[in-house]
Design goal:
The structure holds two protein chains of two kinds. Chain A is an alpha+beta fold. Chain A has one domain: Beta-grasp domain (Ubiquitin-like (UB roll)), CATH 3.10.20. Helices cover 19% and strands 26% of the residues of chain A. Chain A has a five-stranded mixed beta sheet with strand order 2-1-5-3-4, covered by helices on one side. In chain A, 38% of the residues are buried. Mean pLDDT of chain A is 80; it is low at 83-102. By secondary structure, chain B is of the alpha+beta class. In chain B, the strands form four sheets. Chain B has a six-stranded mixed beta sheet with strand order 2-1-6-3-4-5. In chain B, strands 8-7-12-9-10-11 form a six-stranded mixed beta sheet. In chain B, helix 11 (337-350) runs parallel beside helix 13 (375-387), helix 16 (428-436) packs across helix 18 and helix 19 (491-497) packs across helix 20 (499-513). Classes of the chains: A alpha+beta, B alpha+beta. At the A-B interface, strand 3, strand 5 and helix 3 of A face helix 7, helix 8, helix 17, helix 18 and helix 19 of B.
Chain lengths: 102, 578
């Protein structure tokens, strides 16, 4: 049997209800070597419903690997308070200097 | 022709002038900051007769543009000693717009012990004595004024904190539901109003002439595009994040990002965050039969407000908001929403900025006056402020004064104004804004939080210093423009993500005023406002050394990311160096 990891999940906004969970925050077991995207089918969530992801409080993507004891938070598009970046007048500041990854 | 109402409180005279040509394209923060910069001696004491209180709706106020009901209240701040524009929603701005009033300027000072209120309607403005209203809290005052002038009037008022001239005193503005629950909280503008001897401004727009449009059809077209953008964006649309969860949607997000200042900025995560989160609050309000989705400001279609009710379904307060919940919740170690709602109601009633007050209470807790997490103790302290006891006077004069009085060195202020709900070590972009905005620590002056939290299109790691200065600068410029138009800062989500929504803003201004502004012109306009404000502060004695965060943000690592604020002083000095 594959080794498993135990993680903490936090669901923002409507995601708790969509995943039919009692609490916003709960623990979950996953196979080791899992990525964030492997979590979604376990919760019954589609990737369109997950816009903002944090792993241990850092910005992450569906491809981010998760390990033992990690904390994964998922937020839907209506909570994605991150849209200022798409403004053209800030291209210079955002794209020019800020291409570093999380 | 728009009018400017000047009220000389020394002489008790009201003068209604045509708005000078050079001011004709100034609204909101553009008008308040220009008048203050030109007419207030930068070195005056903010509570002296030579200071002025300027109340101005934005350029789009009174039109059919959605979310155009913001009101700017400006003067020299008794809290920061610099120029101040404190921004508030409610139902007054659009009434002034419909009455074609560009602003109300309170000048001079009433004789000691005398209190007045100003009645503004289609016939002009009248100054009336109000000894019977002395010492009244905002809710009682609003009820009395509504009994006299009708439920539909808009009211700008101060509570006991303003009358006692506390630096944390707010100016209350009535919400669409008639309660005095919207507040121009920051910077002690309530104390300036109190120092003038003005308890309230009642605005009645019955039979108001309405706004004139240079090209009404073009305006309607642009406003419809703007409305569609707000209705389309997931954050601002009906049933979207702000409508369902209110601004408190941010508690979970900031806590997760490790940027929710906890127990006087000593940690970045609060173990009780879920108990006070937007998600929990929504379910609680709904279960009790309150209203989780409410338009607090006239013309608002985003509906981030709510009406909080207690366990007996009785109304407590309106728009229990993220900043308030954080300042009096996580920042004080309190995880009880009912207690926080009560604190919000008390602050609204006494006329206090919930951010400054919560931060002052947290500093007092740090000193051991009460223990962190003691909700009953926090409520007791708010009553002390309202009663004006010696302890209350210390707290009511804000976080910096409280730190001094109790010998606390861990005091989160910039230019003596307390920091809002984002720890600058974990969200560095907003830290740059706190340090450099002429307003003193203020998140709304350049809301870098959004860009700092997740990568979409472009991304700035909130935990790294690179690029934060440029980000903050551009946001501060854009925000000054938004504040002058009188638009709600939340329109930015839709305007910035949906190109047609952004383009609609200059189109509306052009159609109303017969202009040919481009987006670049709007940005230049924002820059001019900042230049005006910076020049005032310089003349008031501010130097680049005032554009710094307190030392502990550079020294004490913040859990869980164990980061310090490390944007260099050189970078901070370049932010608004134009």
């Amino acid at each position: 049997m594959d080794a498993t990891i135990r993680i903490t999940v936090l669901l923002g906004g409507d995601l708790r209800k969509e995943a039919r969970k009692e609490c916003q925050e709960f623990e979950l077991e996953l196979s080791s070597g899992s990525k964030v995207q492997d979590l979604l089918p376990r919760l019954g969530l589609s990737s369109e419903r997950v816009k903002m992801i944090m792993v241990n409080g850092r910005g992450a993507t569906l491809d981010t690997p998760i390990g033992e004891g990690d904390r994964v938070a998922l937020f839907p598009p209506e909570l994605a308070f991150n849209t200022f970046v798409s403004l053209g007048f800030r291209k210079e500041s955002v794209e020019g200097r800020g291409k570093q990854s999380a | 022709m728009k009018k400017l109402i000047r009220v000389n409180m020394t002489e008790g005279k009201v003068q209604i002038q045509d708005l000078a040509q050079e001011y004709s394209l100034l609204g909101g923060r553009g008008l308040t900051s220009t008048i203050v910069a030109r007419e207030v001696p930068p070195l005056c004491h903010p509570l002296e007769a030579s200071n002025k209180l300027v109340v101005a709706p934005g350029l789009l106020a009174g039109t059919t543009c959605p979310n155009s009901g913001r009101l700017s209240i400006g003067g020299k701040s008794p809290l920061t000693g610099g120029i101040k524009e404190s921004n508030v929603g409610g139902n007054v701005a659009i009434k002034l717009g419909k009455l074609q009033i560009a602003g109300v300027v309170l000048e001079g000072q009433a004789p000691e012990g005398k209190l007045f209120y100003l009645l503004v309607n289609k016939d002009g403005a009248q100054l009336l004595p109000t000894d019977e209203f002395k010492g009244l809290k905002n809710y009682d005052l609003a009820a009395k004024l509504q009994d006299k002038y009708g439920k539909k009037v808009g009211i700008v008022s101060i509570g006991p904190a303003g009358e006692m001239k506390f630096s944390a005193a707010s100016v209350a503005v009535t919400s669409t539901n008639g309660t005095p629950s919207r507040h121009a909280g920051r910077g002690g503008m309530g104390a300036v109003m109190g120092s003038k001897g003005v308890k309230a401004i009642v605005v009645d727009d019955k039979e108001a002439p309405g706004v004139t449009y240079n090209d009404k059809e073009a305006f309607k077209e642009a406003a419809a595009v703007f409305r569609d953008a707000l209705r389309e964006h997931p954050v601002t649309k009906p049933g979207g994040g702000l409508a369902v969860y209110g601004t408190n949607v941010l508690t979970s997000i900031l806590n997760e990002a490790g940027g929710l200042p906890t127990r006087n900025f000593t940690e970045g995560r609060f173990e009780g965050a879920q108990k006070i989160s937007g998600e929990t609050m929504h379910d609680l309000i709904e279960k009790r039969g309150g209203n989780p989705t409410h338009s607090g400001c006239s013309t608002c279609i985003i509906q981030c407000s709510n009406e909080y009710v207690d366990k007996d379904k009785k109304y407590v307060t309106s728009a229990l908001e993220y900043e308030t919940i954080w300042a009096n919740g996580a920042n004080c170690g309190i995880d009880d929403l009912d207690a926080i709602a009560q604190i919000d109601r008390l602050c609204d009633d006494y006329g206090l900025d919930t951010i400054e007050t919560g931060c002052a209470v947290a500093v007092a807790m740090h000193a051991g006056v009460k223990t962190f997490g003691d909700a009953a103790g926090a409520i007791e302290l708010i009553h002390e402020i309202g009663k004006g006891t010696p302890l209350g006077r210390i707290l009511g004069n804000g976080t910096a004064v409280t730190g001094q009085a109790f010998g606390v060195s861990h005091v989160p202020v910039v230019k003596r104004q307390s920091l809002p709900a984002y720890d600058p070590r974990a969200v560095k972009g907003v830290g740059v804004t706190y340090a450099t905005t002429p307003m003193g620590a203020d998140h709304t002056a350049g809301y870098a939080v959004a860009t700092n939290i997740l990568k979409v299109g472009g991304f700035l790691d909130p935990l790294k210093p690179e690029g934060q200065a440029d980000l903050s600068r551009n946001l501060q410029i854009a925000t000054a423009g938004v504040d002058a138009a009188g638009l709600c800062v939340f329109i930015a989500f839709a305007a910035l993500d949906i190109a047609s929504g952004l383009e609609a803003i200059p189109k509306m201004l052009n159609a109303q005023y017969g202009l040919n502004m481009t987006l670049d012109d709007v940005m230049e306009y924002g820059k001019q406002i900042l230049k005006t404000e910076l020049a005032f502060n310089k003349a008031a004695g501010f130097t680049p050394l005032d554009d710094r965060l307190p030392e502990f943000f550079r020294k004490e690592p913040l859990a869980p990311h164990n980061v310090v604020f490390d944007v260099t002083d050189e970078e901070l000095d370049k932010v608004l160096d134009f």
